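ASSEMBLY PREDICTION REQUEST
Request ID: AP-0331
Submitted by: J.K., bench scientist
Number of chains: two
Total residues: 631
Priority: normal
Notes: Please return the full assembly, not individual chains.
Input sequences:
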Amino acid sequence: MFSFIVQRLLQAVIVMVCVAFVAFLLFQYVGDPVLFMLGQDATADQIIALRKDLGLDRSFVIQFFNFLINAVQGEFGISLRQGAKVSRLIAERLPATLELAFVAAGLALLAGIPMGVYAALKRDAWMSQLLMTVSLLGVSLPTFLIGILLILFFSVLLGWFPSFGRGDVIRLGGWSTGLLSAKGWHHIILPALTLAIFQLTLIMRLVRAEMLEVLRTDYIKFARARGLSNSAIHFGHALKNTLIPVMTITGLQLGGLIAFAIITETVFQWPGMGLLFIQAVTYADVPVMAAYLCLIALIFVVINLIVDLLYFAVDPRLRIGNLGGRST
Amino acid sequence: MRNPIGHWLNSDIGHSFKASKTATGAAGIAFVFIFCAIFAQWVAPTNPFDPASLDLMDARLPPAWVEEGSLKYLLGTDDQGRDILSALIYGARISLIVGIASVAVSLCVGVSLGLLAGFRGGWLDTFLMRLCDIMLSFPAILVALLIAGVGRALLPQADESLAFVVLIVSISLTGWVQYARTVRGTTLVERNKEYVQAARVTGVAPFRIMVRHVLPNVLGPVLVLATIQVATAIITEATLSFLGVGVPPTSPSLGTLIRIGNDFLFSGEWWITIFPGLTLVLIALSVNLLGDWLRDALNPRLH
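STATUS: Completed
Returned structure:
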């Protein structure tokens, strides 16, 4: 147990240092901050003075070390394009992305689990067949195309939902939320649906497959022999055992949601971190790119770590023997 | 053997191919797309990149079957009077080239690393598989997007061919993991089989055993994976291009066309987006179906 945690932590730290190194390389090779700050007609003396001031005359290793110290404190400098501190820009955009991801995850779970259970219990019903076929289509459609199609139908043709922005935002301290107003919910539906569809089909198929697997096991047969009611067997025994892998996948997919949010945010002009990153790439805004890179890596590393540990806590089989970790 | 196609159709796989309606249908669609892509110059009604052929008077025409549409432009025109059908054919060509090229790169890298890891074992195996674990814990599209974004920033004066290289590298850097894991798994099984031991006893060099004896026996699953990965790579490319970090705007792929068309969705010109989108889905779906069929056909347990 202990060695497992240490191993995972070590792996997480290595990943973070690698990502930080890439971010550091960005600063090193894209543009010259000294020229940017002083302008084209700076004298040689000024340039040398500023280089010394910024610590750019030090060795590569020391510069990287300084970068790491700043990065750990969330300090990535000033956005080249927007002139504001990067940490503030990201903090402003973070709530929008997180709200979108959580609403999408909720949507995927609330719809996906019942649909999967239904498709497993009523395998041959036409409704199940339809669900499975449609879900196959959902897997082959790229996210951005789903978004465009939803906009075409629900915004352009029917005019039911707005197609861009967050609507009204209410500030709660440092957090800006769109979930407290009707207009905010109105705005979040289409982007959240776009983001949720892929996860929804995934969860549905997973629940169905796991459910079918569990229903074949001996303890289900035994429960039937004991004369338990169908609903007790299906929900008390089968579903409960189905939910372990579902939980793991959902945890991992939460990271996926934040990643795919880049695409959804671009389609719906949703003012989140993903849109910020894409705009930063277009304008070669290095500080913003570097900060996003480190933040997204951190989110993923933390999610993976939590899922690994949760898996470990939930599944007693993992605690004995095989400590090598999860195999996919 | 004189007629390779006839010979192939008469084999086991050929029969299973002819028996499956999905496979023949999907192969037919894929063939049409590949044919159009290769012979784009002759198939496409106009050359969308030739400014002389563009006429602004023809801009934003709807498809031929809608009122105001003209038979000259079957699927309508975009805002610059470019024929959508021609742009589609050239776009599909670029999408297919990028998709196939990145699969080729990731296949080469993944198969060699997987073979090496499985055959050699030891610290190399541990290191490579750990690396795969880490890569797999990030979604492929995110890794591709980050690499494409960073690559774009690191090469600011990137000319067109460099942009293509960055794009292909970014897609293949996410794809090789699948091949490496599959090949490693099969290699671990194969390396203890009798024919490998026999080769070893007769003094064949390890490298030769690896390449000439083991490699041909692990290629089956790789073929299936590669087919499905072409679809994934094409969708990844389209997504990156849609986000503006893909192919250069001067040679638009399907994703770029969708990105351009997206701006006209609200003014009612749906055809500029919908047709490239439909083409993309059709290509991805047909390649996926072909891959599914291939997996079943190559699986001896199903026969």
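REVIEWER COMMENTS: Residues 206-243 of chain B form the longest helix (38 residues).
SIGN-OFF: pending second reviewer
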